[in-house]
Design goal:
CATH class: Mainly Beta
Shape: globular
CATH topology: Beta-clip-like
Strand content: 25-35%
CATH architecture: Beta Complex
Strand order of the largest sheet: 3-9-8
Helix content: 10-25%
Order of helices and strands: EEEEHHEEEEEEEEH
Structural class: alpha+beta
Mean pLDDT: 95
Length: 159
Amino acid sequence: MFIRTEIRESGIFGKGLFAAESVPRGKIICFFAIGAAVITEAEYLAAIKAGHHPIIRTGTRYAGQYFTHGNEQEPYTFLNHSFSPNLLCHCGIVLARQAIGAGDELTLDYRTLIDDTDIGIYADAATGREIRGWSGKETLLRTARELVEIVEGIEGWTG
């Protein structure tokens, strides 16, 4: 983690990850890929279907057909889902979509992290709405466009 955080009870689901400091828009929060293993989407889907808990808990789309998993002890495994998240994940790089206040819960849109099949469907804890991932191509295009918009809008951005 590149910011101070704390894990505590979440109003969204179970325990969540909270900012312990103010975070400016565009700040890089963490890299999922550091120390993680990389697997193909086929391997990811087989593990999800088999109920392999470590991959269910930590598997995230990296880019295209590749997923990362591991790092079970990292605080970022407590990031909860939101359809209006304050973080963006692009190819394993997680950054602030907006300014985040100290004490705010950090959230990601799980649609950018999971597959687009019927195997790994989640339900939004707040609304019960289905969370189905986007394809590798759709995820890459959506997150790339948003990343460019964020970084272009910040004078002197350094991460």
